[in-house]
Write a structure and sequence with these properties.
By secondary structure, the protein is α/β, with parallel strands linked by helices. The chain has helices spanning about 1-15, 130-145, 155-175, and strands spanning about 30-35, 45-55, 60, 60-70, 75-85, 90-95, 95-105, 110-120, 125-130, 175-180, 190-200, 205-210, 215-220. A five-stranded mixed β-sheet has the order 1-4-7-13-12, with helices on one face.
Length: about 220
């Protein structure tokens, strides 16, 4: 069963645009939440939150949320947030934001995959968050991990995640400063790609592709 799950996920990731020469999530700059549930009557809830400072010539960080079910009366929830701060002047900028939800051979199961990626850069050199920005981001990270303890509907979960996304955007706009100037905020340009929620049932097949100038997000939902 485990081998079959890995094959399915690898196939879905390749379909989403991953290179066969680049193992899924092996890149140091990748961020992934992967929820796999094969036990009846249970919920698997995985979250990932990352902040990347990138000064290389290539910006190809990937943010991914993958939820997979093969069980009855079960759920898999995967949520990934990634902030990518481009601090150099790269010649290649190809970040990816991907969410994949799969239900296979299951009844009354729900797979939810949410991926939020923020890519920001002005080529102005190293930057950091001020004290207030760090405080807000710490609160968001804590709230994100506490969601697994709350009995939320899909609509309630979406509202909470959208609120987190808006707060992160506010931090990027008002609490990011050049290194060495903690009190002087700048107004950077932010590119945001959001995928989710992706909810799948045993009888639903759906594929959506969203493309922005710097980020591609793919959502795939598969029934039995």
């Amino acid at each position: 069963m485990k081998q079959r799950i890995l094959v399915l996920l690898a196939t879905a990731l390749l379909a989403a645009g991953f290179s066969a020469a680049r193992p899924a999530f092996a890149h140091a700059g990748d961020n992934a939440a992967i929820a796999i549930n094969t036990k009846d009557g249970t919920t698997v809830f995985k979250v990932a939150f990352a902040i990347r400072h990138v000064m290389s010539d290539v910006v190809d960080e990937t943010n991914a949320a993958v939820a997979y079910n093969s069980c009855n009366d079960c759920a898999a929830v995967a949520i990934a947030f990634e902030i990518v701060l481009v601090e150099g002047s790269p010649s290649v900028v190809t970040p990816q934001n991907i969410s994949i939800a799969i239900n296979e051979n299951c009844t009354n199961c729900v797979a939810v995959a949410e991926a939020y990626q923020f890519v920001l850069g002005g080529g102005t050199g190293p930057v950091h968050f001020d004290k207030e920005g760090n405080r807000i981001l710490a609160e968001i990270r804590k709230e994100l991990h506490s969601l697994r303890k709350e009995d939320l509907t899909l609509d309630q979960l979406q509202a909470r995640l959208d609120s987190m996304s808006a707060r992160i955007a506010e931090v990027l706009a008002n609490h990011l400063v050049p290194a060495g100037a903690p009190k002087k905020a700048r107004a950077p340009t932010t590119t945001t790609t959001e995928e989710g929620p992706t909810t799948s049932t045993p009888t639903t097949t759906q594929e959506t592709t969203t493309t922005s100038p710097t980020t591609t997000g793919v959502t795939t939902t598969t029934g039995p």
